[in-house]
């Protein structure tokens, strides 16, 4: 049935995924109520992302229903395990959803829409959202290590801090701090944090969340980020479309956010259209596309759910892990 995602499933019989067209996927929403309004969706979407209420109805209600089933099953399992562990059993810890995908593919919009949908479930769970950019190394460290052209590559993150954060969250700790990144200053905000206090669900979004690395030869326990996930989603799209979205967004930012003298990219708002376009193309080709090919796309088959977009950011195909 599918063309674009075929490479995920050489033969569907032996693939870990089942593929769905968006239309078929939409049917799984069943009686899941639509709890967002058109205005709220508009408020949640990122610059250049045209998502609307129809897309939420078509795609995200079924995602919400699926996640509900996973959260409920995890809760059941937790209760059953308490029978074994007794009064001093393990604490109930947040259900963590990882969201991965390229720069400019629209992860932030998906993450925000899901957060809103999940926190409107009848049980009113507390849902928090954290992005991995806060865990990037500060620009002065990146400059010192000659990594400014590698922003977003695995070596540009403080992986230790990322793993400590997730480990604290999964241990049920209270008031766990996550650092904050500013797209305005293009840097981590020194001394600024968001505090995460035992949510029922944590949405953890970033280009690197499904990445693996070589395991220590001495057998030491050094987990992958995704070891802490209860469910993971990869936002996918053809390379040429993501490229176009990145360039369009950059050119729109040039007319908006970059006009702010505080913006790291302010100088690009002063350049001619052609010169700015050349900068955007070079950032895409030399950093983000390279990173997509080398480090992000290879993690796609690790996701539980792949949402594949086509033109206008509309999801055309869905792949759900069978096992
Ligand atoms: N230079 C920038 N200035 C202001 N906002 C930006 C800039 N680059 C990206 N953003 C915003 O940051 C968010 C995250 O972008 P990105 O990491 O590319 O992921 P995605 O597009 O998948 O959400 C988006 O809402 C985007 O609009
Ligand atoms: C900050 C990012 C690495 C995204 O980080 P993430 O939240 O996915 O961890 C990316 O938006 C970025 O700035 N890339 C560097 C090249 C560029 O300026 O587009």
Can you offer a commentary on this structure?
With 323 residues, the protein is an alpha/beta fold. The protein has 9 helices and 9 strands. It has one domain (4-321): 3-Layer(aba) Sandwich (Rossmann fold). 38% of the residues lie in helices and 18% in strands. The strands form 2 sheets. Strands 1-9-8-7-2-6-3 form a 7-stranded mixed beta sheet. Strands 4-5 form a two-stranded antiparallel sheet. It is globular and about 65 Å long. The model has no long low-confidence stretch (mean pLDDT 93). The structure holds adenosine-5'-diphosphate (ADP) and ligand PAZ. The site of adenosine-5'-diphosphate has 14 residues, from α4 and α7.
**CATH superfamily annotation:** P-loop containing nucleotide triphosphate hydrolases
CATH topology: Rossmann fold
Question: How large is the share of residues in beta strands?
Answer: 15-25%
Query: Which kinds of small molecule does this entry bind, naming each only once?
Result: adenosine-5'-diphosphate, the ligand CC(C)(COP(=O)(O)O)[C@@H](O)C(=O)NCCC(=O)O
- The count of domains is 1
- The average pLDDT score comes to 93
* Residue share in helix: 25-40%
- Derived structural class: alpha/beta
Distance between the termini: 20 Å
The CATH first-level class comes to: Alpha Beta
Q: Please tally the β strands and state the result.
A: 9
In one word, what is the shape?
Answer: globular
| CATH architect. name | 3-Layer(aba) Sandwich
Question: Which segments are poorly predicted (pLDDT under 50) over 5 or more consecutive residues?
Answer: none
Number of helices: 9
The string of secondary-structure elements, in order, is: EHHHEHEHHEEEEHHHEE
Radius of gyration (CA) equals: 20 Å
* Main sheet characteristics: 7 strands, mixed
Keywords: ATP-binding, Coenzyme A biosynthesis, Cytoplasm, Kinase, Nucleotide-binding, Transferase
EC number: 2.7.1.33
Organism: Aquamicrobium zhengzhouense
InterPro entries: P-loop_NTPase, PanK, PRK/URK
